[in-house]
Amino acid sequence: MSMQSSSGSTVDSPVWREDIVFSLCASTVVIGLFLDGWNHINLQNGALGSFFTPWHGVLYAGFTATASWLALRNSHLVRSSVAPQPQYHAYFGLPLRYPFAVFGVLIATVGMLGDAIWHTVFGEEKGVARVISPFHLVLFSGAVLLLGAPIRSGWYAPDVYPARLSFKRFFPEVLSLTLVTASVAFRDRGLAKFARVPVHLRRARSIGSIP
After folding, report:
1. Distance of alpha carbon 7 from the chain centroid
2. pLDDT at residue 30 greater than cutoff 60
3. By CB count within 10 A, which of 27, 89, 141, 154 is most buried?
């Protein structure tokens, strides 16, 4: 049963359904990211550790699910029998669904390959260098484009997402924005040590650190 809005569009429109599936898949990426960060900090004592961990499994399972959904939405690029939908936007002559995500996957792939070469040549980064490593920044930029794809989708679909919305109708975009914000917070957590703490908060922080 569909849920009608004041504009007559429904929450079970193809665009809305695609956005909610994309956002839920992308959620697994961020959940895996935070689990992996928790593992490195609490179980690995800040060390790089093994690649084959359950936390990496969640992270890459989420990435694989998101990338697979993206590929399904763009199957017309490799199958001539599939016609692109009207909501697709053309870039360089190619109609794309979630163009931000497509570019994000390409950028993230460059970041991952470059990071592997970087580690081979220069070794493992230590401390805050992990945050500002060149290919980590490239990888992060691609990830943000991937996670934020539903935001752009909603921006360019005014018939599906009119000006007056319920939370349910706007949930894919809210979730996407939350994922982008969470990933930025995760990346910048290593820079917190360089922040200046106001004097009136120093005592509160010291009291809060008492075991």
Report:
1. 30
2. yes
3. 154
